[in-house]
Amino acid sequence: MAHVELSLSEVLVPAAGTPNEQEFDNFGQWSATVSRAAEPCLLVDADTTVVAISSAGCDLLCLGAPEDVIGRPLLEGVRLVDFSAQPSELTEQETDKIPPLLALHSGRLARGLLRVQGPGADAGTTVDAISTPVLAEGAVAGSLTFFSPV
């Protein structure tokens, strides 16, 4: 026969001056997590500058090494192309709708397919991108994106 006990206690409230979970640097924690991640992921700040990217993310997006990408604008290194037979680069209006930027500007989750063209003459790699805004002090400070090859 199973024995279950239930215990109720008062909520622990931190003393004044003691940091709680909301006061930690949320953006800094995500940056460290993304840098060490085995999955293809990317963190950009409010100015669309790459703050952190995983090695797998660099490989999938044909960007080289993470240290070559961090600190640069996202769209400076990534060549996004349309899904036509003769791929051409996306216009500025179209790039504003890619998940990392859409999550940043809308403050909401965003998902979509991207076609990334590497340095060669290949047709490009299609990736599924899921982005979420990252908050700091209640405001959108960046976006976190996970990628998956399709």
Give me the CATH fold name: Beta-Lactamase
Query: What is the arithmetic mean of pLDDT?
Result: 85
CATH superfamily: PAS domain
Order of adjacent strands in the largest pleated sheet: 2-1-5-4-3
- CA(first)-CA(last) distance: 50 Å
Helix count from the secondary structure assignment:
6
Q: What is the count of β-strands?
A: 5
How large is the share of residues in beta strands?
Answer: 25-35%
Q: Kindly provide the radius of gyration, computed on alpha-carbon positions and rounded to a whole number of angstroms.
A: 19 Å
User: How many structural units, i.e. domains?
Assistant: 1
Characterization of the model:
The protein is of the alpha+beta class and 150 residues long. A hairpin with a 2-residue loop joins strand 4 and strand 5. It has helices at residues 26-36, 55-60, 66-69, 74-77, 92-95, 99-106, and strands at 41-45, 50-53, 110-116, 125-136, 139-149. It has one domain: PAS domain (Beta-Lactamase, 2-Layer Sandwich), CATH 3.30.450.20. The mean pLDDT is 85. The protein is globular, with a radius of gyration of 19 Å.
What are the main properties of this structure?
single chain; 150 residues; alpha+beta; Beta-Lactamase; 5-stranded antiparallel beta sheet; 5 strands
